[in-house]
Amino acid sequence: MMNGAEALLRTLMNGGVEVCFANPGTSEMHFVAALDRVRGMRPVLGLFEGVVAGAADGYARMADKPAATLFHLGPGLGNGLSQLHNAMRARTPIVNVVGEHATWHRRYETPLASDVAAYARPVSGWLRTCASARVLAADARAAVQAAHGPPGQIASLILPADCSWDEAGEPGAALPPPRRRAVDDAVLQEVATALRSGEPTVLLMNGAAVRADGLHAASRLANATGATVLADTFTSRLQRGAGRSPVQRFPRYPEQGAALLGQTRHLVLVETVPPVGFFAYPGQPSWLTPESCRIHTLAAPGEDSVAALETLCEMLGAPEDGATVQEASVPAPATGALTPEAVGQSVAAYLPEHAIVSDEAVTSRGGLPEATAGCPPHDWLSLTGGALGGGLTVGLGAAVACPDRKVLCLQADGAGMYNVQSLWTMARERLDITVVVYANRSYRILHHEFERLGLGDVGEGARQLMDIGEPTLDWVALGRGMGLESHRIESTESFNSQFAAAMQARGPQLLEVVL
Amino acid sequence: MMNGAEALLRTLMNGGVEVCFANPGTSEMHFVAALDRVRGMRPVLGLFEGVVAGAADGYARMADKPAATLFHLGPGLGNGLSQLHNAMRARTPIVNVVGEHATWHRRYETPLASDVAAYARPVSGWLRTCASARVLAADARAAVQAAHGPPGQIASLILPADCSWDEAGEPGAALPPPRRRAVDDAVLQEVATALRSGEPTVLLMNGAAVRADGLHAASRLANATGATVLADTFTSRLQRGAGRSPVQRFPRYPEQGAALLGQTRHLVLVETVPPVGFFAYPGQPSWLTPESCRIHTLAAPGEDSVAALETLCEMLGAPEDGATVQEASVPAPATGALTPEAVGQSVAAYLPEHAIVSDEAVTSRGGLPEATAGCPPHDWLSLTGGALGGGLTVGLGAAVACPDRKVLCLQADGAGMYNVQSLWTMARERLDITVVVYANRSYRILHHEFERLGLGDVGEGARQLMDIGEPTLDWVALGRGMGLESHRIESTESFNSQFAAAMQARGPQLLEVVL
Predict the structure, then answer these.
(1) Bridge partner list, A42
(2) Among residues A81, A258, A45, which one has the least CA distance to residue B114?
(3) Do A461 and B25 touch (CB under 8 A)?
(4) Nearest Cβ partner for B105 among A233, A234, A286
(5) pTM of the predicted model as reported, rounded to 2 decimal places
(6) What part of A 97-116 touches B (C-beta under 8 Å)?
(7) pLDDT at A174 over 90
(8) Across chain A, how many H-helices and E-strands are there?
(9) Nearest-CA neighbor of B380 among B368, B367, B389, B366?
(10) Is the pLDDT of residue B1 over 90?
(11) Are the beta carbons of A110 and B468 separated by less than 8 Å?
(12) How close A421 gets to chain B, by Cα (Å)?
C-alpha cells in the first residue's frame, strides 16, 4: 500500500516540484518518513519557518516553478507568514503544505490546536484542507496547478496527519504546462491608440514584462512612440545589465512618484496595478496618478504581457533593432572611505556574469543600481512585499534553484536579523552565496521616516526603538556560529580583495562591512 | 493639542501598563515619537517580532498585568503569532497594538497592504480597529480592560497611522481592578458531593490554582478526601519548591494519561479543560477520560478557583494544617558524565530562592522536575501552546517584570534557534538571566516521535529534516555575536563552577552545555 504522504510526494514530483523547504513537527513525521522512499525530492531544512517561506519564494522566482514548503500547524505557518506575504506580492508560485492534527483530533482543545486555514488565508490564493488520504493526490495536483497560475500564487494545502498515514489512491499524473492568457485585441487597439496619440504616456511594468524580452519590446515601443517605460519600485525578478534594455524604477516616495507622473495622460499597466504611496504621510495623497490621466491595463498580472508588447511593436511599426541596449560599463573598484557608495561601486566592479542579486540593502543601497547598470547580465530580486527579512531567505532559495550561478545577498544589518537563521541553511547546503552585511547599526530607514514625518529630534525613548548599536551585533560571530566562513571588512581595500576573492571562489561566505 | 499616540500611551499608563515590547515600522513612528513625551513607559526593542510577543507573554505571567506590544502591520504581527499563540494558551493578558496604514491609505494595493484583523484573529480574545484619533483613548482603555479578563487574553488594537497623528481626546482614566467571578454554590455542592463519595476523584488544575495558595488548598482537600491533585502538563506559572504543596503533572503522552485516569469516577476541572492527547497517533484515542467518569467544572478559566478550593476545604472539614508541604531538599552538585540528568541535578544544587525558570529544555529535561522539587521556592514557566521558541522570549519578559529575581532559561538548542534574537535584547537590557543551552544538535523530539509512530529506521531524507548538527551551531559565538557573555561547558565540573558563579553574579550570560 502507498500512504497519503507518499502519494503526495509522488504527485508533487509528477508536477515538477523537486524541492521541499521544511521545518516539520510531529504531525508531519509521515511526510518526513516518505522522503526516504521517494527519491528525487530534495528536502532543505530551515531552523525557522521564515527561512523556509522566503527560500521557497526565492527558489520559484528563479526556477519559474514552485517548490513545496512544509510547516507545522498554525503557529509554525504563522512564523512563515511575513515571508509568504512577500511571495504573494511577488506573485510567486508556492505549494504551501501545512501539517495539521489528525481529522479526529482537531476538535479538541490541545495546546497546538489552531485554525490553520485562518492562518493561511491572508497569503493564500488557493486554500484547501485535505479531507482524507484517498483524495490527497488529487488535492496535491490541484495545488500544484493553482500555484502555477499564472500569475503564480500561494496554494495552501492543509494536511491532517491521518491523511498522511492512511492508505491513499494513485499519485496524480503530470500536469499540462501553465499557459498565460493572451491579451484581447480590443485592449491592444486601445493601448496602440494611446501610444499613437503623441500624448505623454507611461508604461509601468512588473512580472514577466521586466525580464529581458519584455524590457526589450517595451524599449522598442518607447523609442518608436516617445512613451516612457518604468518598472515598479519593487519587482520579483528584474533582468538587467549589459546587452539588455535598461529601465528606470518608479520612485519610492509619493511626492517623487506624483512629480514623475505629473504630465502623464496615459498610464499603461503591464502586469501591475496603479502606483500608490508605499506609506501614507499626513496631508500627502496616496493616489499618484493625475486626474487627467487615463489608465489602461494592457496586461493583468499573469497575462501574456511579453507577447502583447511584441504585438504592439508590430502594430506601431517599432523596428526590431529599435530598442535601447545597455552598453557594457564596469566601474573600477572604489578607493577611499568605506561607504555604502564605495561598496556599491566595488560590487559593480566584480559582479560576475549571471549573478543573482538579492537586494535588502535598504538605506545602504547608495548608488548601487546606477553602478551596476552596465555590469554583465544579471538578475535582481527585491523585497516585493515590504516585510523585512527577505534578503537572506530569497537569496538562499535562488541559490538552491541555480547552483551554477553566483548569488549575492546585499543585506542591511537590521533587516538581516529577522531571518538570521538563513545563514545556517546556506552553510549546510554549501550554497554558492556571498552575503554582504551593511553594518550601520541602526534602523536608519526609521530615522529617515521619523524625519520625513516632521517628528523633530529623536529623544531617548524613540532612540531605544531605532538604534540597534548597543550592544553591537557581531556578524562575523553570528556567521561563524552558524558554520559560515565570515570576515569583517573595515576598509575599502579590504572589501575589494575579499569581495573579489568571494566572486572567484565557490561556496557560502559572509562579509560584514562596518560602515 | 495631544495627538492620538500620546493619548494612547497615557491611557495605557493609567491602566497600569508600564512596558512596551516593540518592533516598529514607519506607520508606528508617531507612537515611537510619543515615547519621548510620555515618560514612564519603558520601551523594549526586539530585533524580531517573535521576541516581542514572547517577552510580553513572560512579562505578564510574572507581573500579573499586561504589557503592551507594538507591531508593524499584518506581516510584522505574523512574525509574532506563534508566540502569541503560546500566550493565548497561557491565558496571558497582552495589549497587542498593531500599527496599520492610515485609514485612507488602506484601500490601496500597496506592498505592505494586509488584512491586519485576519492576522490577529487566531490569537485575539478581543479585537478592534481604531476608527479615529478621537476614540483611540476609549479603545485603548477597553483593550486594557479586555486584556485583564479574567482570564487574561490578547486584546488586539489595530492602530491606523492617522489615528496616532490626528488630534485626540483626553486619555482614558484608570480602570477598576479586575475581579474574578466567584464559583456558584451549586457547583461547590456538586464537587463537594463528588469528593465525599469516596469514589476515585482527580482534580486537574491550571491558572491561578497552580500557584502556592491554590496548590495548598487542593492538597488539604486531597488529604482530607483521598482525591488526587494533578496539574496540566503545561502551565502558565507553577509555584513550587520547599514549603509549597507539590503537584504531579499530567503526563504528556496519551497512553500514560489514559492509564493515570483509568479508574477515575470524578474528574474535577479547575481552570482547565478535559485532558486530551497533545498529538494524535494512529489507532490511539485522543480523549483520555474514561466513559464511566463524570466531569465536573469547579472553575472555568478566570473564575476564582482559589477561593473555591478554600471554600471546599471548609465544607469538607479539611484542616488548615492538612496540606502536604514539600520539605527542603537540595541535591549535591552532579559528578561524572555531562548528561541532561547531571545538568538537572546541578541546576537544582545551585538554584537560588525565588528563581524563575523558563523551561524549554524539551527532551533534555531529564530528571529536572524531580531534582528541583525541594529547592527553595521558585516559579516555573512552561511552553503552554507548544509553539517552539518560547524559552528565551518568556524568560526575557519575566526578567523585565522581576528585576530582583534570577531568571533561568533552560533551553534546548533546536527550539532555541526560533527566537535566537532574544539574546540581543537580554544583553541590551542587562537582564539578570542565565541561559543554559542543551546542545544535543538534533531535533531529538522528532526522533522520539518518529519512533513512537512506528516509522522504522531514519533514512537519509528524513535525517536531513531531523538532525541539526551539520554544521554545528556554536552557541558561544551566537551569544557573543549578540553581546552576551557566553561560555562553552564540556564537563560536569565546569558546569558546576560556571553555573554556581552565574547564580551568584548579576546580569545576562549564556552557558552552552555540549551533550
Answers:
(1) A19
(2) A81
(3) no
(4) A286
(5) 0.98
(6) 101-102, 104-105, 108-112, 114-115
(7) no
(8) 20, 18
(9) B368
(10) no
(11) no
(12) 7
